[in-house]
Structure prediction request, 217 residues.
Amino acid sequence: MPSWNIHTAHVERLLREEGAAALGVRDENAFLLGNLAPDVYVGYMVPNTTVRIDYKLTHYTIREHIPLPRYDDFWDFYIAGRDDVSDVVLGAWAHLVADHVYNAHTRAYLASIGVEPGERARIGKQGDFALFGRTLDISLVPHVDEALLAQCAAFPPYSILERDVRGAVESARRIVEKNQVEHLGGAPDYQLLTAEFFDVAREEANATIVGGLSSRV
Prediction:
């Protein structure tokens, strides 16, 4: 559910507050792109990719209302016990953590206020996440270099082709520029969710990512 402005804001906070070395990140650019990678082929964020891959495969989940990506499975498959983990892989894991945490909190919150799955929930939560994303100050945009292309080509679940890496970079650039133009100061008037909801979810996602990455260092 978090869009790329939210994922980018998480990366900027991680690098600012923890630092790349403390997280085991060697290539910040590749880590940033990795935080976007699971969405590249699902058909929403990057237009005209060479292939489409179903969300349930890219996010290790099942198709359901507000799915919960299994970031722990991704960790076990591609990170645990390995010394040669790329920064794209580490970033992709962080993406799945953020999606899981925000989605889990959304499920719980909507249930707590008696909102059933359906159009009201879909429209309301999407609108609220869009508003929240606009409150974030972001500036980082990945760039294409040989190191990034090599890591994407070797991405263990599926290769991310150069054309699609470039498409993802351009999509990320547009999102950052749009966020800067449409930035919101203060707490927006949310439809269903609240500023406190986003504060809690953001802190949990950040802490989970920091805990996992720092455990490898």
